[in-house]
Amino acid sequence: MSTILLWSCQDDLELKPEDNRETSATVFDNPDSYREFTAKLYAGLSLSGQQGPSGNADLQGLDEGFSNYMRLFFKLQELTTDEAVIGWNDGTIKDLHSQTWTSGNEFIRTMYSRLLYQIALTNEFLRQTTDAKLDGRGVSGDLKSEIAEYRAEARFLRALSYYHAMDLFGNPPFVTEEDPIGAFLPPQIKRADLFSYIEGELLAIESTIVPARQNEYGRADQAAVWMLLSKLYLNAEVYTGQGRYTDVITYTTKVIQAGYSIPDVPYQYLFLADNDTNGAQEEVIFPITFDGLNTQAYGGMTFMIHASIGGSMDPADFGVSSGWAGLRTTQQFVDLFPGGAESEDKRAIFYTDGQKKEIDNISVFTDGYAVAKFKNVDINGEQGSDSTGEFPDTDFPMFRLADAYLMYAEAVLRGGGGSTGQAVTYINELKERAYGDSSGNITASDLTLDFIINERGRELYWEAQRRTDLIRFNLFTENGVWAFKGGVPQGTTTASFRNIMPIPASDLV
């Protein structure tokens, strides 16, 4: 799908369609429509169309299950790294791990289209909820205040998608609610300019969005804004050439002091079907939510859990009906854990029975250890709400407190200020959860940048962080080596231009 098509919506929304479809002239006659539109904005991260699990897709050109925002984002952030490989032969999917993609890669193209589609939705919501529009519809009082909160959340979601677009593509097309709806060629924006725009949007809504921990679970609040600002500043040197590590200290500190905690529950509770109620939610700042009955899709957590199961693994142990025999990890990632799969670090959640550690053939599921991190069972081993075992309840923790701790520690090491002692304390809080005691704790002399990139892998693997992290540490292309990177079994380095994904050939034309 080309960018032109993405912005080619009907310009005159006052016209009455011949097939009697609703338009903005009628849809907002219902006060509930504002909340429903906001729900669609959030659903854009987890669902792939207008009905679950398939049948009325948002995007055309790729199987609906493949076109899901979270599924595509995971693929580009994880399959391109040492943390994940996939055994399938769908189209050009293997080119992601081998880092041999071209501008015609359909997975990269559809991620690009998904981002721009999501941005288009938020732009339209913002167009339709200006004071002038609301006054014209007679909206006032509590509903108008409620819509103001929705607008702040929509701006956050647009900033999030623009952040992903900047991180992945560098210089994407740029359109806001101020631009016309009819067909036109949207201009590309320079990466540094987009950085400034995202920063400005987040700072503008920082004081107007719902305060930290005061919104409904699954909706963005002030802490989500602070986390995204922290991410933006942590990677500022990549995006703009200018380090902003002092700002990382400022905003991670705001998050850390907002009342979240590392709960006294096992690490895996964060990735189970009841992770919204089992205590793990005390750490989660912004999740992508899933419900086996109400948010059915073949992307998102359905993909994450089913595709991780194969070989001798029993799908029932994971609360699902089948395994898709796809996702595993590389031996290099396993080796980040002292002792490998047998590590005393309880974050090393690997399935090894019948699996080889080394990958000789990516297409064979049993080559490479399987990752058993995400499951559709609760803390008692009971399956999620969908009795068919097809669609999970497990939420995806996009932002959580452990990441804020690790960002703070990294910013200290990169000269942003803060306290080395405080950074060590934060790291050891994570280590004590991982080991169950203080045996894995570190001292100040252990706190190095090499330690941080490895610890980020151990704590945050398969949470769509790795590609961005490796680029920041200059380990993604020219320096890092892992199995089948470059398309060879032993792995090799690749050219640095692959630090940015290509603008799809269809748009370049």
Describe the structure.
By secondary structure, this protein is mostly helical. Helix content is 40%, strand content 4%. The chain has 19 helices and six strands. The chain has helices spanning 3-6, 24-27, 32-46, 69-79, 94-98, 106-127, 131-136, 141-169, 191-205, 222-234, 236-240, 245-256, 300-306, 331-334, 401-413, 420-435, 449-460, 466-472, 505-508; strands spanning 85-86, 284-288, 327-328, 350-351, 370-371, 396-400. α4 crosses α6 (106-127). The radius of gyration is 22 Å and the shape is globular. Mean pLDDT is 92; it is low at 1-19.
Task: Give the helices and strands, then pairings.
Layout: H1 3-6, H2 24-27, H3 32-46, H4 69-79, E1 85-86, H5 94-98, H6 106-127, H7 131-136, H8 141-169, H9 191-205, H10 222-234, H11 236-240, H12 245-256, E2 284-288, H13 300-306, E3 327-328, H14 331-334, E4 350-351, E5 370-371, E6 396-400, H15 401-413, H16 420-435, H17 449-460, H18 466-472, H19 505-508
Antiparallel strand pairs: 1-3, 2-6, 4-5
Helix pairs in contact: 3-6, 3-8, 4-6, 6-8, 8-9, 9-10, 10-12, 12-15, 15-16, 15-17
